[in-house]
Structure formats: C-alpha cells, structure tokens
C-alpha cells in the first residue's frame, strides 16, 4: 500500500501551524485523514503520524533493528551531551538505562516521598489567607527544589542557590518563543536552519552549570562516606558491565538529562492538577473526602496509592499531555504498520495527544472525568503520557509520585480558590505544552 494521505499545504506552512496551534492542528489533521497521516507533503524522508493503539503497540514493541531513536537535534546534544539517554543510539541507550534504573526502583520512592512532602510544606508553610500566588511559578519552585534535593542531594546552601539560579535562567532562554522553534521543528526541517545564535547565547550558561556540576561530582567522590540517598550518590556507585565506573562526563550528562526531563514537565503537570482540582467543585469535594479519610502522615506511599487522587492525576496527564509525542523513531529496515509499508529512513511519530483523544477508548474525550480511570484499566498503547517501549521516560514513577504528593500536601494544608475560574488551554513552551499563567488565592489554612 502507498504511504498515507496527509495535509497538502507546504512543509513550511504545516510547520508554522503545528508550532503555533499544535492541538488544533492535530485535531484537524486527524478529522481529515484519520488515525494515520503523512505530514510535510513529499518531503523525504517521509514523516508519518500514528495514534491507533494497534500501530502504537507495533512501534513500541519493535526491536531496535526496526527502529532507531537517535535524535538528530544538535541543540539537544549540545545541552544534554553525547551520553544522554535521550540522544544516544539504541545499544548505548540500553547500557545507560541499565545504569540509571536502580535510583528509580520502588524502594527508593520511600526516600524521595519524604523529601517531596517536606519541600512542599516548607514552600507553602507560611502562606496566610488572602495571599495570591501564580501557580506556575510556585510549581516550578517546588519542582526545581525537589530535583536539586533528589538528584544532587543539595539543600539550601551556596551551590544549591547558584545551580538553581543558573538552571532557571537556562530554561528561560531555551523556552523563549523564538528559540523554541529549534526544539520543535520536525527533524528534516531542522537541517535547513542554523541555530548558531541560540548556541552562542546558551554556551556561557552551560559552561557555568557544567563547572558547578563537575565540582559537585569531584567533591562527592572525595567524600567516600557521604551517606547520600540521592541519585548522584547512587550513580557514583554504579559501573559498566566491564566494572569501570562512570566517567565524569557520563555522570554530568546523566544528571543534566534528569534535570532537563524532570523540571518543567513535572511542574506543568502539577499546575494542571491543581487547576483541575479546583475548577470542578465535585472533583475537589471527592479529593478532600478521600484525603481526609487517609491523613498525610509517615505513610507517604500510601497517600500516593489513593485511587481517586491517582485517577485525577492520570486524567490530568491524559487530557493535556505535557509532551505531544515521544521522540521520533527512524525506520531501519522495511516494516509494515497498519497496512503501510515503511522503508528505511521514514520518520515515525506516535501522537500521545491523539491517542488520548480517541472516542473509542475515552468516551467524551474533551471532558475532564477522572472516574474513567476507576472504571477500567488502559493498556500502555492507549494511555502513554510518558511515551512507551524501550524509550519510555525512565523517571515516570518519580514524576507521578511527585505530582500526587505535592497535590495531596497542598490540598491537605490550604483552602484555595481560582482567582479567575475559567477554562484555559495549553500553550507551547519549547518541546512541551504547559498551562498559561494563572493565579490562585489562599482562602484558609487547615
């Protein structure tokens, strides 16, 4: 069968449409061409979007001989390094994944859960009725503090404050609307533009961050008896199959990747979760009823397992997924998907957003309804907020734990209200979709 049909506009027009109005553009393309469509016209290699669970299963379960997920994005490689799990080839990816998995095992979650709740309580602890706050900013503050604690074992000292300031500044530059173009262009178009100006503006900040990160690594290596439960401490004890420890460059690339992947993604999901918890009076009432029946104490993991809280967080990630699609996969050898024969170099994209909007799977998909996650379980090819297959986000469990515990802590400590209780839609910020800026007010303290 020939390649699927798709939009007829020029590749540049399609790119602009997808950049400026990604959700609306995906909805229109899906309505016109169905679950599978080709974008960028006759550009080679072909770029195909899939959202059917059967197709997603075939893509996610294919061997690395069929697909390669190496990212041809020079900007990402500049930021994250050649050893990043997000940018390395399949074989290296598997080696890196083996090394990075232990810090995310379930037994580590108990240690992280305590830090998550303590940091959240510290940030909101002195708020009084009448305080108005920008939700997005507070969630970013919580998220960056958790990352610095969990990943680096850093608390409030000079290095902590310096690294925090540098990272926030880096993300502000990186996610400026113009700079976002270089992260969001479909790979075949990235080659047509130069990003030297952006590269120049980032280099000085990256050098400062690297200098600080390498100094933290060196200091921790000297502190052989450092009793850390943070991810850096565990990576320092890790080794390759040969028995060789990770090099400083490998450590740096892994740490920066975790920062990059877990900062604004999680803070944006937190902002959405808080928004939906107060936008609907019924959802808010149900959450409080469940939390009041299981007050936050030492059993933080028990809180994170509460069914309705989990359903609200799951629906948050379904309704407006932070990432519209996992990184592209590149066909390595001919493969048939949904009746289409895909040749080598074809670019395959799984649309998380469209997969989450399927009426057959999620009746009334445009309605925020947590109950759907209490009524049935969804397969990893129907519900995939963290991607899937061998490239599924390695920090998914930690991100979900953080979203649930931060939300539960805030709801248990404060009475809040939306300053402007109105529907809002996501906006693009670099590679991800985030809620627009909105405010809440403290109406009481519990």
UniProtKB/TrEMBL annotation:
**Among its keywords, does the record have Heme?**
yes
Q: Entry's Gene3D superfamilies?
A: Cytochrome P450
The cofactor(s) it depends on are: heme
Instruction: Identify this protein by name.
Output: Cytochrome P450
Q: What family does this belong to?
A: Belongs to the cytochrome P450 family.
- Alphabetical list of CDD domains matching this protein: CYP110-like
The record lists the organism as Nostoc flagelliforme FACHB-838
Q: Which InterPro entries match?
A: Cyt_P450, Cyt_P450_CS, Cyt_P450_E_grp-I, Cyt_P450_sf, Cytochrome_P450_monoxygenase
UniProt keywords (A-Z) are:
Heme, Iron, Metal-binding, Monooxygenase, Oxidoreductase
């Amino acid at each position: 069968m020939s390649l699927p049909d798709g939009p007829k506009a020029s590749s540049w027009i399609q790119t602009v449409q997808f950049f400026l109005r990604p959700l609306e553009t995906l909805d229109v393309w899906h309505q016109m061409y169905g679950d599978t469509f080709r974008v960028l016209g006759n550009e080679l290699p072909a770029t195909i979007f899939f959202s059917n669970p059967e197709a997603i299963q075939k893509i996610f379960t294919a061997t690395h001989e069929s697909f390669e997920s190496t990212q041809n994005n020079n900007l990402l490689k500049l930021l994250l390094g050649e050893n990043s799990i997000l940018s390395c080839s399949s074989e290296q990816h598997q080696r890196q994944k083996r090394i990075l998995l232990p810090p995310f095992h379930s037994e580590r979650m108990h240690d992280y859960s305590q830090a998550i709740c303590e940091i959240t309580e510290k940030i909101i602890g002195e708020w009084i009725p009448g305080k108005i706050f920008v939700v997005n900013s507070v969630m970013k503050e919580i998220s960056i503090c958790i990352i610095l604690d969990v990943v680096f074992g850093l608390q409030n000292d000079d290095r902590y404050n310096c690294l925090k300031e540098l990272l926030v500044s880096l993300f502000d530059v990186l996610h400026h609307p113009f700079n976002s173009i270089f992260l969001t262009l479909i790979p075949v178009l990235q080659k047509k533009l130069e990003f030297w100006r952006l590269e120049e503006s980032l280099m000085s900040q990256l050098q400062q961050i690297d200098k600080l990160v390498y100094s933290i690594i060196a200091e921790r290596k000297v502190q052989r008896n450092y009793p850390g439960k943070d991810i850096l401490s565990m990576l320092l004890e890790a080794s390759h199959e040969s028995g060789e420890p990770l090099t400083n460059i490998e450590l740096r690339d892994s740490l920066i990747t975790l920062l990059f992947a877990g900062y604004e993604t999680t803070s944006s999901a937190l902002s959405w979760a808080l928004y939906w918890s107060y936008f609907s009076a019924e959802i808010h009432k149900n959450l409080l009823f469940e939390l009041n029946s299981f007050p936050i104490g030492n059993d933080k993991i028990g809180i994170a397992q509460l069914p309705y809280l989990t359903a609200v967080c799951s629906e948050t990630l379904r309704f407006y997924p932070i990432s519209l699609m996992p990184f592209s996969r590149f066909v390595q050898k001919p493969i048939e998907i949904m009746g289409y024969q895909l040749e080598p170099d074809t670019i395959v994209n799984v649309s998380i957003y469209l997969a989450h909007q399927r009426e057959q799977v999620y009746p009334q998909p445009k309605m925020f309804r947590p109950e759907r996650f209490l009524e049935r379980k969804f397969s990893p090819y129907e519900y995939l907020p963290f991607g899937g297959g061998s490239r599924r986000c390695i920090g998914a469990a930690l991100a979900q734990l953080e979203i649930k515990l931060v939300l539960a802590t805030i709801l248990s400590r404060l009475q809040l209200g939306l300053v402007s209780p109105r529907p809002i839609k996501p906006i693009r910020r670099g590679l991800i979709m985030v809620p627009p800026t909105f405010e809440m007010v403290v109406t009481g303290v519990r």
